[in-house]
Amino acid sequence: MMKNILSIFAIIALLFTACEPTTDEPQAENQQIKLTSNATIKVGSGSTMAFITYEIVEVVEGAEVKAEADVEWISNFKYNQQGKITFTTEANPDGEPREGVITVSYDKSKFEVKVEQALSEAPTNKVVEVSNLQIKYYGIQGGMFNYYLAFSNEGWTSDHYYNVPNAQFYFVDLFLLESPEDLNNIIIPNGTYEYDPTNSGMANTFTESYSWYQINDEYGNASSANQISYEKGKLIVENGKVTLQVTMQINHVQEHHEVVFEGDYTAIDCSNEGM
């Protein structure tokens, strides 16, 4: 009799144990958004635009799709098109591949996408000897004396513009403490001047906003895609020799250009004009 009673209690205990929820297995989460493109995106070593596609499974009033990355070189998320997120990657400066993770969330749901970026290719080095250097002096700009340099083989037009067909220009927006001693004989003092990506306009620097490599088409025009910003650089002036050393991304490949001019350059006073 006692054995039968113990057996009944054992069965009841098992029944209660079976009804208790388990915590070992993950709980199912309501899926409100799902990834419809690849979970891994591979991009080249240069600056790149890529995208993620998704589908809203369950619409939640007031909820918004948001994306964020765990690395700084993935940024600029745009949500202009329903079901698509675009983003950009910065050029990889390293000789090793790198990875980052983008997390896309919508209300209480989220998914992750891995971004794999290729290692930086060996940069292309070019030495460019130019026959023309034209300078416009714009007087005081932002408290400094502003000189605008244009290196090229074609030179500017007769009215001092740069819309020369099929020409290539290297522009330098230079700020100095010194004003010209003679406006009829404007010269750049000897020295080394650094590229400033922050556009501070500090002395002995050239700015990012108006300094670039420009490739004109057959009509003398250049789209923004053909106005290629420098990533870093310096300008060296030494006894009649002017050398511009710049690094930039051209067709997703890093290039180092050393632009060399020797001789007498043309400089005009535009201090009574705007840029």
Please characterize this protein's 3D structure.
There is one protein chain. By secondary structure, the protein is mainly β. The chain has two domains: 33-117, Immunoglobulins (Immunoglobulin-like); 124-269, no CATH class. It has one helix and 20 strands. The protein has one helix at residues 2-19, and strands spanning 33-35, 40-43, 48-56, 65-69, 74-81, 84-89, 98-106, 109-117, 124-129, 132-141, 144-152, 168-176, 191-196, 205-207, 212-215, 227-229, 232-238, 241-250, 253-262, 266-269. Strands 9, 10, 11, 12, 13, 14, 15, 16, 17, 18, 19 and 20 form a twelve-stranded mixed sheet that branches. A hairpin with a 2-residue loop joins strand 18 and strand 19. Mean pLDDT is 88; it is low at 1-28.
Q: Which secondary structure elements does this structure contain, and how are they paired or packed?
A:
Blueprint: H1 2-19, E1 33-35, E2 40-43, E3 48-56, E4 65-69, E5 74-81, E6 84-89, E7 98-106, E8 109-117, E9 124-129, E10 132-141, E11 144-152, E12 168-176, E13 191-196, E14 205-207, E15 212-215, E16 227-229, E17 232-238, E18 241-250, E19 253-262, E20 266-269
Parallel strand pairs: 2-8, 9-19, 10-20, 13-14
Antiparallel strand pairs: 1-3, 3-6, 4-7, 5-6, 7-8, 10-11, 11-12, 12-14, 12-15, 13-17, 15-16, 17-18, 18-19
